[in-house]
Design a protein that fits this description.
This protein has a two-stranded antiparallel ribbon. 72% of the residues lie in helices and 1% in strands. The protein is mostly helical. Among the domains are: 57 residues, no CATH class; 121 residues, no CATH class; 119 residues; 38 residues; 44 residues. A hairpin with a 2-residue loop joins β1 and β2.
Amino acid sequence: MAAAGEWELVVKSSKKSKNSSVTNGKLSKTEKRQFIDSAPRLTLTGITEVKDVGKENRQPKSPKVGEQKKKKKSDKKKDEQKVPPRSLEEAIGRLSVGEMTNLMEVVVSRFKDSPLIWLKDLASYLNVRVNVSDHDPAFRGLPADYPMGILAHDVKQLLLNTLKPCPDAVLASFHHHCVASMVHEQAKGLAVTGYKMFLQLLAAHRPSVCLTYLPQYMELRHSFQNQPPVCLSLLWALGQAGLGDFNLGLRVWLELMVPLIGLKNYSAYVVEYGCAVFSGGGGGDGCEDLLGVREFFSILDFTWCSSGSLPKPVQRQLFALYPKVKTSAFSPSPETTLRNFFPSFLRRLDPAVPQHFTQELLNCLVQCLTTDMQCWSVWKQLYLKHLPQSALLLQHLGAEWSVLSRSLRIRNRQVREAVQSFANTNAQIHNKANVVSGLKDATEATQELLGRMRTRTGVSWVQVFTVSIMAFLSIAVWDINKSPTFKESHIGKGLDRVGLLSHCEVLAVATGSALRHAYRWCGTHIPVFYSRGCELAGPYLQLVWEKSAVLAVAMYTQIAALIDHLAQKWPVFHAKVEEALPGVCEGIVYWANIVYSTIQTHLATVISFTSPYLTQLQHFLTTRVFVGPLAPEKLYEHLTYLLQIICQQFAGIQSCLTSLLNPEVKDEVETSQTEL
């Protein structure tokens, strides 16, 4: 123990001095480190003595196992979210309604009166989340509502609820923003599927606002025309507005797509979109304002003159689409609009054009001349300017006059005057100059057509006799029913004047007696013959009926099986037919459309020409024929009386059959037959 006023500290001795004392309480650096290492440690369970001095004892053990597991799980989830989606369906499936709702709440709170900013932020979020590039910018071969159709219902409902309260001006500006962003970002190589989905949803919700900035869209198409993926995305996005509205689709097709129909990268999509627009037949209200003369003839020229460079399937689709375009261009009032198309058809009728195009032009010209009679006046003005073309048309009219005269017979005088003016013009030109292109052919065709028009077609004597008999019988019945008695009718008076009235009366009495005797004989013998026939042939007829029913069921089963078999084998059969005869199926569809359009046109012409005469006939029948005894109410009374008589006769026949089945009544019938 140290002296008073001094402390002595006992520590572990070192190798040099095991028992050393410290004066004045001062320790060296080595002694301080040794003291700290040998001191007891304070832990959660109390003060524990550290026996072994080591590296492990210096670090306290207090691990948090639960927190580490949670951190690992959250890290795994973050890693999964960081993995890019492998498909568009997977990317759309990862969309979270909660995140979109939170985003909208934040944006709306910051910009309360700016719905355009809300929509832009939502579109940007959607495009960032759906970060998948499209293999086909136009989604060909997929459903029409793709990719919008694979959106979850709650996500789609959130987007629609955001669009609904916005006015048209805001939606039009937003549509322009999405289109411009889509085009420029795709040009940089970025994914734009999110913008496409929003544009498709907007086109389905309010398609009328999608073409507000059409001039700007046409400039974008012209700028990115040399980049097919970008331009196809633009055409697809703008074409969505026309899938449900024919006029909007026709406007997009004519103004944006038809100018690109001759380019290799766009022809297939342009034709497919045209087929989709005209799938309902076309001819909507206001169609004539969009599809005019210039637009129609641009399609006609490319279809018949320049479509040879297209692939065969696309070419067949274009030829199947052409009749629908022609019908829409001519409707809804061809009797007043075809005069505008006639000059362009006549100018293209050149002898140097291909034969199939020449035939189509001749058919269209004939349709113009037979439907719109004002085309003859237009032709008079253009005759000298297009003399070779007029010669071809006159030759065609002369060759088909036997059929065409039926359509022109009502206004045949106007047609004759027009052809005669052509003949006079030919004579005047022939006297002034001998060398005029097409003059000789036009003169010959005009003379031949005039000769055919002067020649009347013969009428069959059978038809004349049939018509005469029907007319005489109709007049006789009408005259007899109009007079109180037969003698007072014009026919009776005429027979009386020639002395045949008495003989006709005797003949009428004899005929009536014979008919009454025949009626009695039928009422007596036919029930007996009928019962005997049922007795003899009834079992055989029953057997035939049963076998016929079995045969009908078997035939129905076989026909149903055959239809199912053909439905299964039809794709293979269609492929073989296309391989053996390329284009035959599309050709049949094309000519069927032509026949249908021709029949429809001529039927409308016939109805328009005959409607005034039918109206006059109806007025004549209602005022001159179906009056008095032939009035509708009188005819109804006579028909009711006749039906009552027939029912009574059937009741008599039934009673006779019942009596024949009773032996006692049968003897009475045989006795009455013996007396007769």
